[in-house]
Amino acid sequence: MSLFGSMQVSASGMAAQRTRAELLVENMANSETTRTPEGGPYKRKDVVFSSEEQTSPFSAVFQNEIGTGVTVSDITVDQSPPEMRYMPGHPDADATGYVAFPKMNPAEDMADLLNATRSYEANVAAISSVKDMISRSIDIMRT
After folding, report:
1. Count of domains forming the chain
2. Whether pTM exceeds 0.90
3. 3-class SS at 91?
4. Sequence-separated (6 or more) residues with CB below 8 Å from residue 28
5. Which end of the chain offers a freer environment for a tag, N or C, measured as fewer CB atoms within 10 Å?
């Protein structure tokens, strides 16, 4: 794989992890949302990754090398029943005094967000390494 192909694969990983992080932050921000425009409490979202062939913009020049990157193939919505809390004074309470809250685990979401951040950083480090290799190659060709 060419250096430019490697950069394209890492860029696809960065884009996928950015989408994952955005959804995790949205989930955490809506962890107490009991009313949505669709009706009922907020439902947790998650991404589904799949592999995708990545072609470099320079592939026509550099032997049409293709790498396998990652893409967000789907965004799933949690269909599990909401968590019911007894809060009779709440405006969204039902006749028995229970309120439907999103079913979320903040510790799990924070761990997933940390994982997404680390994966993003790993792709940044890979692109930086490729950039350094290209720079050194240019320096060698000058001498």
Report:
1. 1
2. no
3. coil
4. 104, 106, 109, 110, 113
5. C
